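Support case: user asked for a sample of complex input and structure output to validate their parser. Sending the pair below.
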Amino acid sequence: MDHLQNLARQQWLIPVIPLAAAAIQSLLPRSAKKLSAGLCLIAMGISCLFALRAFFATLGHTDAPQAVWNFTWFEYGTVSFKLGFILDPLTAAMAAMVTFVGFWIFVNATGYMHDDENFTRFFCFLSLFAAAMLGLVISNNILLLFMCWELVGLCSYLLIGFWFQKPSAAAACKKAFITTRIGDVGFFLGILMLFWKTGTLNLYTAEGTGALQRVGELLGPGWFGWSVATTIAVLLFIGAMGKSAQFPLHVWLPDAMEGPTPVSALIHAATMVAAGVFMVGRMFPLFIAGGSLEHPTFAMDMVLYIGAFTALFSATIAVAQFDIKRVLAYSTCSQLGFMVMALGAGGLVPGQFHLLTHAFFKALLFLGSGCVIIGTHHEQDMRKMGGLRKYMPITFVCYLIGMLALAGVPPFAGFFSKDEVLLVTFQRSKLAWGMATFAAFLTGFYMTRQMFMVFAGKWRGGDHNEVHGHGGHEPHEVPWNMWLPIAVLSLFAVGLGFFGGKYAHYLGAEEEELSGKALVMGLSIAVGALGIFLGWVLYGRKPLAHANDPDPLEDKLGGLFTCLNRKWYVDEFYEATIIRATTACGTLFRVIDKRLVDGILHSIVWIVRGISQVCRWVGDEFFINGGFDAGCQTVRGSGWLMSKLQNGRVQNYFRVLGLGTIILLVVYFLKS
Amino acid sequence: MNIPLGHYLILAAILFAIGLAGALTRKNAIIVLMGIEVMFNSAILNLVAFWQYKYFAVPTAQLFAIFAIAVAAAESAVGLALVIAVYRHYKSVDVDEMKELKG
Amino acid sequence: METIYQILHTTFANVPAWAVQIAAFLIPIAFIFGVYPAIFALTTLVERKALGRIQNRYGPNRVGIFGILQPLADGLKILLKEDIVPRVADKFTHFLAPVLIVIPGLLVYLVVPVAPGMVAVDLKIGVLFALAVGTMSVIALFMAGWASRNKFSVLGAVRAVAQVVSYEVPTVMAGVAVIMAAGTLSTLTIVQRQGGGLLNISNWYVFRPWGLVGFALFIIGGLAESARCPFDLPEAESELIGGYHTEYSGFKFALFQMGEYLAGMAMAGVTVTLFLGGYMGPGSGPGLAGGLISMLWFFVKLAGMIGLNIWIRGTWPRLRVDQLMGFAWKVLLPLALVNIVAVGFWHFLTPRPLAWIITTGWLVIWFLVLTKCNASAKLEKREYRYV
Amino acid sequence: MNLAFWIISAVTVLGALLAVSLRNLVHCVLALILFFIGIAAHYFLLRADFLGTVQILIYVGAVAVLILFAIMLTHNVTGTDGPREILGVKWWSGAVIAAALAILLKKAILSDPLAMVLPAGDKAQSSVAEIGRALVANWVVPLEAIAILLTAALIGAVVIALEEIQKSR
């Protein structure tokens, strides 16, 4: 155990190395491209080694090993505020995934951003982001977690708005930051409540005084009749919703695609969005406190249904998108919905396992789309692509693997993890399971749609814009440093699925047989196949000939399609309601301030001036000038008298001397 | 020679008073100095009288007088030098005119 | 005075005590008033004859045989002279000045022992008294000069005062040396200390190294005090006409002369008592005969001193004022101080020859040093342009 | 002998009075000298002969001359035609104070039994040797102090008075 303790103590190295790299890169001049990239990759590599070392160390143990190392951050009065790092299977696996995927994404990024003049700044933000994410993962103190959480939000803002010259990018990064901030308010309230109730922010401590270790105490009455634990859980989940783009706060994720593709891959596929799910996993004891699988707490229900709805909702939108990255963005939303739903259904292990597998193949898909964009000279609209399998064979193969994994085709990772999720949800509630299954069907459909639009048929990019005359380029294969990462990731996308059981065991969850396992599995396979077939029918048989042909689905759905394309008008809805309301409040307060406050102030000033006038007249004129000056006059008069005595004549002083002696003598006689 | 000490003391007192009168009334600075000189001598006379009448056994009693005479001489020397300096400034030794240090 | 009192008391036993006391008191005074003015008269004559001789001419020889009665003649003459007092003169001071000049001279003789036991007043502080009284003459000089409201007389008075004051200091210091050696201030004991030895002469202080220096100082002091010869600047005829006694005529002028001479003789007397062993001489001793011989010795020495004065007056030129002052302060005073130190050596170095060597060496060295540093710049050899 | 005391004190008082009240400065100085001599005589009466001679030596010999020089240096030489008014501005207050002081002191002296003490006469022997030895032995510090004081006074007086001569040259 002490070996783990040592490792726990060295946990802080993992985030600090990328942080150091980020610091150094921030000082580098813009021209030091090679050095910056090198630094970033090396730092990520080292921290990846450390993470893997910790991962393999925890792998060996059977009972869920947990090593905590706390240090005092600062002391106020008698209380010393402790921060700490934790090393348990959940963290180890997550850290390993983040560093490994991150490393390959960085490799791809060197290619993608090759000819961008702000190359060094980009990699600096990347390493900063990595540091923040790792810090979040390993922290044992919820406040430290929250700090890293905010840092991650900041990095996403910086990276999304990397090309801040583009107004859409600037707006997108602001939007992302604000919506996540709204979630963070809930998160912070949750922290405060936790601190208020338990008195400490450390999750686990060796002595067992950690917040999560004393969950039992938190069953007192909280808000809205829930137990304290549930209230905190709800608040924390609001934070997670903001960060993991769940239903009400998901609007920022599609717009976040404005950032460079490796950013989308890293942040909006593998790591950041997973942070919310990870946080819920980390705080899982809070969620299930006070309830059990049979009658779950309100928090669990809330998580479940929001997850399910988000999955379905975003899947529907993904179907009608034309931008290659937006499709993937919405698919991420729906997959996150799946994970959250799994957690809501009480399945910590399926949720986390799906998170891991999803991170790999979604990163793969995003990088693939990155390669496609580079290959087609920054073309993002699928309608202008097509037939890329001839031009970009490697990308095509990897992309295909990623698509199959995502769609849940059996041998691939996606199938196993999604299957687990559906199984857990099936136990929990049939409604959620139904929605999830339909979402799985849609996933299959829009992924195949994307595949055929992009890779099948012939290259539509050229003809559409002869007007510009530059479109005549043929797409070309990307250099090695872009396709190598997707190749590696595709390996994982294939192989990771088989480790599902071992992962459950690793996390320490006991292996109990769930009923209806065969039914659920069979149904999910069927649904996936149906989705793919429909995709092939609409898009595969005769791929689009020209960029501006109508989308086959469009004439099928008509109005619904445009509605889907407009993202169910959610943005417009927000625009209409919340934003207008706040501006209205703003003007109201301005008016109040103007009328009320200024008015009061002016009146007070007037009164004070009046009083001073009175004081001046009464006090100054009458008393001071009169009385005081008279006093001074008398003093000066007596002074004048005394000065006459001092008239400089020596003999005068002598006479006074004589007088003095005489008086003394007289006194002497009178006395004796 | 059986004159009681009182006579000497009274003599000294009278001389002192005369000296003081001179110092106070006269206009001329030199006369003032002379008055002071007279006062000095009357004091020393007192000392010697006491030596003779009371402390005759102690030969060193006279030392008081000797030191007093020495100091008086030094004082008068400096006093006169000052008067000369003052005269140079005022072109007169009239005490009433020396009002420069008026308060 | 006590001895006289005893003598008288025994002879006139029946006379009441106080009368005897007064008589005892008066006799010495009478002696002094009688003897010393007589000597004064004699010296005037002797001086003029000696000066004549020095200047290769006879002195006054018309009045009486060899001019013996000349002083009498002068006395009469002056008595008959009209006493002119300047109108603006300060009457009171003008009159008082000649009187005050004579008094100090006479007072000094009080303490000069003529014969063993024969001293007017045996003060324990004889020497100091003599010197103190000497200073009183200063005031008289000044009054004389001031009273006659005459610029020349005032200048003469100021010079005289300056001279007397500045020479008085070295003289007093020299006297201190003798007092240290003798150990007492009373003149009688000093003279007795100088007695004994070979023929009552060898013990004279003048034969001690420091004594010789003291003697020289006293001689110079004496001359300066009475403004005679080398120091007779105050009444240097060429510049200041008569000095402070220009405005005096008639008997007041005579008094001035007498005062000067008396002062000179007084200093001579003191010098004799301090350095030449007073009345000590071969054959002098207590008792009537010894007393007479000692008295004889005293007056012989006194005559010798006066002769020396006259001789110096005839031969030495007059000093310039600054030379005179410089000589007093820069040479005589340091020499006197050094002399005191020499007496200190003499007193503590018991082996006689060693004492002799050290004191003489010390004094000679200092004498050379003083003369060296005060020597006026050597005049370069004069070249004559037209040679 | 009592007679001597009365005569001498009369002379002294006369000297003091004249010194203070005469119009002509030089006469004042002469009166002062008379006063000094009177005091010296008193010392001899009190058998303090050393003090008497010292008094004569210092006062009559030096201080009187000093005052005379001072008068000469400050007054126009003739001295008689000075300002008629010889008394100070508020001279009467000075006189009153002096008189009051005299009376009070006289009263104080007479009231004190000490006044009736008789003189020691011959017993009061003061030999100069003893005084000298005392001065140099356990009174040496005051002696040195007086030495310093006198030199300081000497130099001070010269410095103050000298300035005038330099300027005039």
